[in-house]
Amino acid sequence: MGIAKEFREFAVKGNVIDLAVGVIIGGAFGKIVDSVVSDLIMPVVGLVFGKLDFSNLFVVLGSVPEGTPYTLEAIRKAGVPVLAYGNFITVAVNFVILAFIIFVMVKQINRLKRETPVEPPAPPATPEDIQLLREIRDSLKR
Q1: pLDDT tens by residue, 30-44
Q2: I need a labelling partner for 27 at 20 to 30 A (CA). Which of 46, 65, 98, 99 fits?
Q3: What is the pTM of this model?
């Protein structure tokens, strides 16, 4: 029973819960960034570089069966090994954009933390017995 109790204590710690929330939000955020890259940025990049669709850039590493369309999806379905470097380019661009967005977010959070003045906590109240002893000491000095 000791392991179950130990695991429960570990699982309900604040850091573990925070990590779980971060992973869930990160997954959803990753999907948003993936959509931004594939639906907004890559078409513009493809237009700039001659209407390239990076997802269809590949090198065939085997022989393509006759009658198979020369598309990445069709060649993969035919079981031919393919070096799909266009997908890698898309994922790399996705990573750079995601890293930049996280950098900007962390920078803004740190800026907000610096701008918020933190007031030092008030000193704790002197216990009553010490206060009385001080009063007695001060009265004896007179």
Answers
A1: 788 778 777 887 778
A2: 46
A3: 0.50
